[in-house]
Amino acid sequence: MKMKETQVRYACRIVSLAVSLRSQYRFTRQIMKFKYEDLEIWQIALELIRAVYELLKKFPDDEKYDLISQGKRAVISIALNIAEGSGRHTDRDFSLFINRAITSLLEVDAVMKIGLKLGYITETDYNLVGSLFEKEYYKLIAFDKTLIKDNTKRKRYVGRN
After folding, report:
1. Are residues 8 and 78 in the same domain?
2. What would the pLDDT profile of 119-143 be if each residue is shown by its tens digit?
3. Structural domain tally of the chain?
4. Rounded Cα gap, residues 126 and 49, in angstroms
5. CA torsion 47→53→54→56, rounded to 10°?
6. Which residues lie closer than 8 Å to 35 by C-beta, 6 or more apart?
7. Which of 20, 30, 132, 159 has the greatest number of CB atoms lying within 10 Å of its CB?
8. Are residues 21 and 44 in the same domain?
9. Are residues 70 and 138 in the same domain?
């Protein structure tokens, strides 16, 4: 009988230790961080998502499956293309994704301008997000130029004479 009591105590200690370690692990583990998260263009893209989603709430319900849906997909696409491109192995490939992010940015800008023309948002609303569009646009262009510049140093285009 004494043997079983000792075994139970030992098992309880092991379970207690396992629970303790598990809770410590849960609170101390770090979320993996990728290199795109340090890019300023990524940070601005996240700001744009928040701002555009807030403005899209002002659009009428009948635009739910048209302008609202298109605007949401396009603004998310900016951030996703930056993230996906950063995982590519060459600057040239990354540049292609930056260009997709630029076109998505222009698409979101167009959605907002259409919303402005249709009276869904005010000019003040547009100007708040418009400054972010402009900032992100020029940052993406500059970033793309550095990728292209770095790429031309590594490989020269071999064309016809």
Report:
1. no
2. 999 999 999 999 999 999 999 999 9
3. 2
4. 14
5. 140
6. 86
7. 132
8. no
9. yes
